[in-house]
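Researcher: Go.
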Amino acid sequence: MNILLILITVTVLYLIVDIRQTVKQDRQPIFGKTVVMDSSALIDGRIVDVVKSGFLQQKIVVPKIVLRELQLLADGRDAHKRERARLGLDVVSELQQLKTTNVEINDFGFSKSQPTDELILQLAIKLNASLCTTDFNLNKVAIVEGVEVLNVNELAQVLRPKMLPGESIEVKIIQKGDGPGQGVGYLDDGTMVVVDGAGRLKSKLVHAKVERMIQTKAGKMIFAVLN
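Model: Structure:
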């Protein structure tokens, strides 16, 4: 009886530990892998808000070659690129100050003569990491190479609220649409709205009723009529 009781106790303890480990695994962040950052994602800056929200809590790797690229742009003559690059450097500093993630800056022994994009991809593959980028071409190449991509633009598209047919919206007409009498405007989140009958109302704020919402490669589009 004592032996049977011991076996039952050990089995129960094992099951408790296994359940706790499973629950712990289920509570991992949505993006649980190490994440390699490229310059476009840093310049974009929204990655800081993503980290603060808790969606990305694992180690972030910033290759030294990316920092050098940002530094060269920050010292360049192009005023726009200079300001964007300085923002990227500030984003790295802000990420380092966050307590919810660990930021590692390293060259990992790769050749400095390699193209930046090629080095970043090799690093992501070596670390079995995800790649965070908003660069369209690098995104495509990474997918071909089998590297998981975290694109903040795609995340923003997914998180945009859905509009149901019959809902009323306000939108400022920016330009004429392709169809007869259509006017085109944009919501605050960047969603394009095509409004029938608003072609002559450029620069006017109009009230419209949603007819349908579609997903395209460029993002979501709303088709509406004047309300």
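Model: The two ends are 80 Å apart (CA to CA).
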